[in-house]
Write a structure and sequence with these properties.
heterotrimer; A alpha/beta (269); B mainly alpha (308); C mainly alpha (231); B: 308 residues; 9 helices; 4 strands; flat; C: 231 residues; mainly alpha; two-stranded antiparallel ribbon; 2 strands; globular
Chain lengths: 269, 308, 231
């Protein structure tokens, strides 16, 4: 029983009409690096919302450390605070995730909501700022920062709560290559430090870099396959069947050529 | 691609369209909207840029600056001698030099605002019909005084010296208020400035709403700018006015939906970090000796100006 | 409509500031009741939207373009209490960052455009539109709501300005603040707003409300039962 999160038979639809998740089952172990991959609109973000207890499934069960997470269970202040402290969510769009007046406020917000003493919160904020190399942004308003800086602030703002689990929606979206490398290394380091990391992506090369356990969410909003990174990446036929890579035809004049197209460069060893 | 490219795409588009004779709508509303949103974005940038500079006034504690703002603005509104107001104008100008602000840029804005609101609007008050007194500059002479509905119209209409004093006083007051407010705003980071309102007892909830609104304004203004450029690039002018109204209502609706989504997600992001309905904002309460000196000097100068 | 610094005497702007502070506190409390913990992001968004709506220029009859104050639209879309907070936050930001409207006059401007006008607009709209309503009826109700509430707010503003010569003049009778008395300020403001700005406000209010009504009537506060939000 070292599953930190398990989802059993989850169904979710928007406004009771538009299906977003169908009969989803998955479990994540403590300290694991876990990835949910799928196309746009397959329900990846919705799944993270459910894991984080922000929205609740129409049917099915969410267990966090063996305890059910429901709308009712989160009315209890203690279990709510525990969930919020132990599990943090980094949204895809930092403009939305960040809402405080300054960078420092962002870092202090979580700890102060959890009634962590101010001095401790401040100490954590200072350490985190210097860990991520963004101390110079401390008093700046967040909306003025660049995309990469915002993403760093977004991560910093949840790290100060010292969560056990990090939920990250599209960790590399709209980042330049240098910042992407920074984040890949950061995620590996945090994982080695014992943090459970769950992220979503549609970039297969990220799976190759991080080697997480992978669950594939299909366009039918259901989990088609779960396995290790190499199991998933090795199965070209399967990846084609869920449209994560596709056959591609070009016509240049009379010449026609065909190849598999993906962001992922297959490493043939 | 599975199908062949449509044949019209292979033709060049020159001379395909002649200007239609239909009643053409003016497209100036697009440029005006772009201008409005761009002005907002620019002002926010300008404010953020000048407020992070490290000069003397920028470093004064925000609480002190807020107290000074209220004190000086109240003083300007009480002092009713044009000569004393000029002293205040000179004093504020000196502060601008100390703050090393882009004087031309900021003063141009101050002049414009106070010309419209402090000069043009009060100019008629220089006439004897509003401010009675000795006419020093006659404009119109009638045969005899007359009476129209509730208004008495004297034989001579002209500017009075008392009238000029009234105009001068109000112009200077508007000018001084705007220039001092701009001085404080442009030397204080917006978040720090908003947080300084705590000292007046404004609850954190309200301050958080202002800070969030400010951020949304910035984001949404840029969205409007972008969507209007897109609109501009697609509209040729052969469009009826009522179509345009529908189009703009549609844009407003789009911005509304977009704001709703942003707000929903912000709410989730807040909940995810432990938010339960109340916020506590952190603010720096550290006062340096310098802060007290600045406070002391400016308060003392204000008292001197009122008393002399 | 935005009163600048220098036109109102302290004996006018201080009480108005007091009235505004009480209204804003009541408004936050009421919105909290409607949307519970969502109140902070909800009101932040509504405030930004009411700031933004002033940016949109629409072609109006006569070949020119105009924009609205927006208090009426905001009140119909978000309800009068949320509008009170939203419009006043927009006014505060305008006064502080954009120099539009005075700092001493924040209380007065908020009272006129963020407290009085939204409530007037909301109840005029409620009175004239029936629920369920036809689209012509909604257009008409929204137009009258925008038109009348703006004209009324303008007259209120004119009254605040027009009493200045009476309550604050120097010993020799010279004006110290707004120099125009009621017999000038009220006709001057009323004529402009009756003939031009009121019509612009009415048209824009009607266009936006109608568009929302046609496409997603559920988002309009004035048509929601009990005024519940956000689900």
């Amino acid at each position: 029983m070292d599953d930190i999160i398990s989802l059993n038979n989850i169904d979710y639809s928007y406004y009771g009409k538009i299906p977003a998740l169908k009969n989803v089952n998955l479990s994540v172990k403590k300290g694991e690096m876990f990835s949910i991959i799928g196309l746009n609109g397959s329900g990846k973000s919705t799944l993270l919302h459910i894991i984080n207890g922000l929205i609740f499934p129409d049917s099915g069960e969410v267990l966090f450390d063996g305890n059910p997470v429901t709308e009712k269970s989160l009315h209890d202040k203690n279990s709510r605070m525990q969930l919020r402290q132990r599990m943090s969510y980094i949204f895809q769009n930092p403009d939305i995730q960040l809402f405080c007046p300054t960078v420092l406020d962002e870092l202090l917000f979580g700890p102060l909501q959890l009634s962590i003493p101010f001095e401790t919160a401040q100490e954590r904020a200072e350490q985190t700022l210097s860990y991520l190399g963004i101390g110079f942004l401390k008093d700046r308003p967040v909306y003025m920062l660049s995309g990469g800086e915002k993403k760093k602030v977004a991560i910093a703002s949840v790290l100060t709560m010292n969560p056990d689990i990090l939920l990250i929606d599209e960790p590399l979206s709209s980042l330049d290559p240098k910042t992407q490398t920074f984040f890949i290394e950061l995620l590996l380091e945090l994982n080695h430090a014992g943090k459970t990391i769950i992220f979503t992506t549609h970039h297969l090369d990220l799976i190759d870099h991080l080697q997480p356990r992978v669950a594939v969410l299909s366009e039918e909003h259901t989990i088609r396959k779960t396995g290790t990174a190499s199991e998933i990446l090795g199965d070209e036929e399967f990846l084609i069947s869920v449209n994560l890579i596709h056959e591609h035809t070009h016509k240049h004049g009379n010449e026609e050529h065909k190849h598999y197209h993906t962001h992922y460069v297959f490493h043939k060893h | 691609m599975g199908n062949n490219i449509p044949s019209y795409l292979l033709q060049t588009s020159i001379d395909q369209y002649k200007s239609a004779n239909a009643k053409r709508a003016k497209l100036s509303f697009i440029d005006k909207t772009i201008l409005n949103s761009a002005t907002a974005v620019k002002s926010i940038y300008l404010q953020a840029e000048s407020s992070v500079k490290v000069n003397f006034i920028q470093k004064v504690n925000p609480y002190v600056k807020l107290i000074l703002l209220i004190y000086i603005i109240l003083m300007i509104s009480i002092v009713s001698n044009p000569g004393k107001q000029i002293l205040v104008t000179v004093f504020i100008f000196l502060l601008y030099i100390i703050a090393k602000l882009k004087i031309v840029q900021v003063y141009r804005k101050v002049f414009l605002l106070s010309f419209v609101f402090g000069f043009l609007i009060v100019l008629p008050a220089s006439l004897n019909v509003i401010t009675p007194g000795k006419i020093i500059f006659n404009l119109v002479t009638f045969n005899k005084p007359s009476h129209l509905w509730i208004y008495d119209i004297p034989q001579n209409i002209g500017c009075t010296s008392e009238g000029f004093q009234v105009v001068a006083l109000i112009f200077l007051r508007v000018f001084n208020s705007v220039s001092f407010a701009m001085l404080i705003v442009f030397t204080t980071s917006f978040p720090a400035f908003i947080k300084s309102f705590k000292i007046l007892g404004v609850p954190d909830t309200f301050l958080m709403i202002i800070a969030l609104a400010y951020k949304y304004i910035f984001i949404l203004s840029r969205t409007i700018e972008e969507t209007y450029f897109a609109l501009k690039s697609r509209l040729s002018g052969n469009i009826k006015t009522n179509k345009i109204r529908k189009l703009i209502s549609g844009r407003i609706f789009f911005i509304f939906r977009r704001s709703m989504i942003i707000y929903e997600n912000t709410y989730y992001a807040m909940v995810s970090r432990g938010y339960g309905g109340e916020v506590r904002l952190y603010s720096q309460k550290h006062f340096a000796i310098k802060d007290f000196i600045v406070l002391g000097i400016i308060v003392a100068l204000g008292i001197v100006i009122i008393l002399i | 409509m935005h009163i600048p610094d220098g036109y109102l005497s302290p004996q006018t702007y201080i009480p108005l500031m007091g009235v505004f502070v009480v209204s804003a506190a009541l408004a936050v409390k009421n919105v909290k009741k409607e949307v519970s913990a969502r109140n902070i992001p909800y009101l932040g968004m509504a405030a930004a939207f009411s700031f933004i709506i002033m940016m949109f220029n629409l072609p109006i009859p006569g070949g020119t373009t105009g924009h609205a104050v927006g208090s009426a639209v905001i009140a119909i879309l978000f309800g009068p209490w949320a509008a009170t907070v939203a419009v006043s936050v927009a006014i505060i930001i305008q006064a502080l960052i954009f120099g539009d409207g005075g700092i001493t006059a924040i209380g007065a401007n908020c009272f006129n455009m963020a407290v009085f006008m939204p409530f007037a607009a909301y109840y005029i709209f409620k009175l004239l539109s029936s629920n369920p309503a036809g689209s012509a009826r909604v257009f008409f109700a929204a137009f009258i709501s925008g038109y009348l509430s703006l004209v009324m707010a303008a007259v209120l503003t004119a009254a605040e300005l027009g009493i200045q010569p009476m309550i604050a003049s120097s010993s020799d009778g010279k004006a110290l603040y707004c120099p125009y008395n009621l017999s000038i300020s009220i006709p001057a403001m009323a004529i402009g707003h009756l003939l031009l700005f009121g019509i612009v406000e009415g048209i824009i209010t009607a266009l936006i409300v109608s568009y929302f009504f046609k496409n997603e009537p559920g988002v309009i506060y004035a048509f929601r039962k009990g005024g519940k939000n956000g689900d």
